[in-house]
Amino acid sequence: RKEVEQDPGPFNVPEGATVAFNCTYSNSASQSFFWYRQDCRKEPKLLMSVYSSGNEDGRFTAQLNRASQYISLLIRDSKLSDSATYLCVVSSGGSYIPTFGRGTSLIVHP
Amino acid sequence: NAGVMQNPRHLVRRRGQEARLRCSPMKGHSHVYWYRQLPEEGLKFMVYLQKENIIDESGMPKERFSAEFPKEGPSILRIQQVVRGDSAAYFCASSPLPAGDYNEQFFGPGTRLTVL
Description:
The structure holds 2 protein chains of 2 kinds.
Chain A: E1 4-6, E2 11-14, E3 19-25, E4 30-38, E5 44-49, E6 55-57, E7 60-65, E8 70-75, E9 84-92, E10 99-100, E11 104-109
Parallel strand pairs in A: 2-11
Antiparallel strand pairs in A: 1-3, 3-8, 4-5, 4-9, 6-7, 7-8, 9-10, 9-11
Chain B: E1 5-7, E2 10-13, E3 19-24, E4 31-37, E5 43-50, E6 53-56, E7 65-68, E8 75-79, E9 88-95, E10 106-107, E11 111-115
Parallel strand pairs in B: 2-11
Antiparallel strand pairs in B: 1-3, 3-8, 4-5, 4-9, 5-6, 7-8, 9-10, 9-11
């Protein structure tokens, strides 16, 4: 089993739709969780950190489920500009090496 | 405050040549990570360095690849005797503290290496 797994997609949704991605991780000692966004042929950029209590930033909501070992990202009212690849990143306690998932591709169409 | 800088942005090499990739971290950042990304693949960790020290190189191929982060100047990822399979995007990321523990990494624009 891979350390961090994501459905590669693509998720094809119309503008205004709500879309959710999940990411599962295998190491129960994992402590830090992030969602990064990567546009085509660009560098990854931090979208949001994912805390145990969950967090929300505008149209984006991230949740952590430790019992089932997954994190989720919910995007409401999708915009064309949300089209990108969303990378799940997990760091384990005591390790300074983050593990990146392969990413989930989102395409928002008019 | 300038972001992470990488150069060159594009590099073309013939098989057997050497490739040198440079990364200047953000000001005040002493932790540098190198990643490789193949088309349609995720980021793969290669090496983690602090000033003058290699902390973890577990993701680096044993041969032909080396990295350094000298006291002065940028971090360098060096690939000797390149082969076609080395063609990829190489990203550098820096942070003021070690990644993990909710410390964000800041990525450079990457160097796209093409081996002919």
